[in-house]
# Entry
Amino acid sequence: MELDQILNKEELTKDEIVFLLSLEKENEIEKLYLCADKIRKKYFGNEVHLRGIVEFSNYCEQDCLYCGLRKSNKNLQRYRMTKDEIISTAEKITQAGIKTVVLQSGEDHFYSSSLVTDIILTIKKKFESAITLSIGERGRDEYEEWKNAGADRYLLKHETANDELYSTYHQHEKLKSRLAHIKCLKKIGFQTGSGNIIGLPGQNIEDITDDILLCKEMECDMCSFSPFIPSQDSPLREVPSANTDLTLKTIAVARIVLKNVHIPSTTALLTLIGNGAEVGLKIGANVIMPNFTPIPYRDNYQIYKDKKTYDPIEFLNELKVMLDKIDRKVGEGKGHSLKLMLNQ
Ligand code: 5AD
# Structure
């Protein structure tokens, strides 16, 4: 196969995606990154969208093998933030000029539909902010209620497109059921985010290709491709972190295939490589998600070990200097889905 030819194509086949993810030569990988960056620029110009995260509960009813929040982990100090704590964190996010609040937690039914609705209504009333929910699988009625209350977006990663691996890592649950949730969220009208974990044991390049193609098929608005990092309190504690090159190639190829979706430079990438935010933004990513979870909770949202932690205001100051350096700027507006804009 001829690299230049593939990079000039509008649609890529599965074999071509496998080919791109398998590139090894430095000059070829460089071409891949340049192509991804060009496509990112075509759709988003120099705007980088920020999403402020509040990790409001680390209780989780699930037992995913790779995750430090899994219910079997008895070493984790669990916390739940009150509604008032969540609202005051949303206020900090807004005051920092960020126009999306991401409410993230383990799967925790302590937060009833009506409590989540109440939180959404209060944030929407007090602040000019978009809301993204990232709280796992819930019922269709709940999704509808939260959409009606004003939530704009929902993140629910498919994690892996290989259904056998999916069932291995998720207590024998079915990928099909996960995808039904994502489709339901889309149908209800959420801007929907999916994505994978790169570097799970048993996963190969074809699986990662399928992850990217699945995001395309599902017409996701946001897609997050993040590296596996082991949690010492999970059965995968001995597994090495994802390969950095493979992680970066995945982000770049995802940009080339998915074109106008929002792709974050994730906290996991930041944890994997010190300058992850900058590197991600240069190879296809257009979103950064600063973490505003307050002390003392922040240190206990331990999805994986050594999760990068920082003071969000300092982080933002450094980020703005970095953006300036690479000729990018914080996006104006809420940074809604480009697909949504096209359909309006
Ligand atoms: N490494 C990287 N990402 C992980 N997640 C969970 N555990 C890990 C890990 N060990 C991601 C999953 C999940 C999100 C909450 O965190 O993709 O959707």
About this structure: The longest helix spans residues 26-44. The two ends are 39 Å apart (CA to CA). The chain has one domain: 12-343.
